[in-house]
Amino acid sequence: MNGVELLSERHIVGMIVMLAESDRRESDFLVLSNSYYIIRDKVTLLMDAGIIEPFEVERSRGRWYRLTPKGIETAKHLRICCDLIDDGN
């Protein structure tokens, strides 16, 4: 899947923006979709693209994810795009 296809997927941009703010548990993404299966599919797409990676948190339930260096760079560019759109210029 190329970049345009990935970013066109529903919830993907929202997930990247959420992860740019802080590391997240998989269940945190349920604010975007109430379907665990949809979220699981999107997480897999982002991992396959090298945008996010899982990591362990001691004494915590659930799966945790963070942006990879590629994901951090992607999130920076998305933030620039969002800011341009929000400014209305």
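The record above closes out task 2.4. Task 2.5 opens with a second protein, given below.
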Amino acid sequence: MIATTLLALSMAKTTQSVDLAWKPTVGDIQTYNFTIDSKMDMGGSAMQMVTSFVTQNQITKVEGDLVTTRGTMRNGASRMIVNGQTMKGPGMPPGRPVDVVHTKRGILVSVSTPGGNSNLGLFQTLVRPEKLVAPGDKWQHTWEANKALNLNRVKIEWTYEGEYLHRGNLKTHKITFVMTELDKQDPVTGEGTFLLNPLTTMPHRLDGTIRNFRMDPRAPASTVSIRAEIRGKVPESESPEVPKLEPELR
């Protein structure tokens, strides 16, 4: 009887539903260390470029269901490895601020300076579920092609995996996802993991891999690993070295 009661309590705890809704507040700031590791074949030469930078995202407006975030990038550094030989990569001047508008679920509405590759931006997007979720629950969103936003038709499915102890002591919510580019003969695909802060429901960390990715349509296809982790305030003078990638969370 006691064993049955304990088992029931354990199951109730592990299947408890959680609220992953985004609760944005004007003035909120999230600062992340980013590392992007790209591998490609350049006409028979194996090339790898590892880039690191710091991004800062500040919520500047919340109006109804719409949230405006101003993002900036700084402290960029990179290195290239060509056929096993390492060399310093191109410099990265601080980027201009970009204002991005999402719905409170996280669906992209507008970008002040559209450009770049839409797949890379969507890969970092977490659309929130419309209801409470328990471990194993799935939800998805499909972006239709949009020339104004430079978006391809892409579907992403997210799965709530439950609570996860990051680095052994930080309680987080773990969400895995799979991304697929639609209507393409040679589509971009990818998968990754978000770890959310349970108090703010903001991403604490992102790990993932995109395959068959092209920053430019004329560029060769590459496999790109992305790692982002939240950090504290970064002095403007600080210029971090490109870190080594740790094993993926999944």
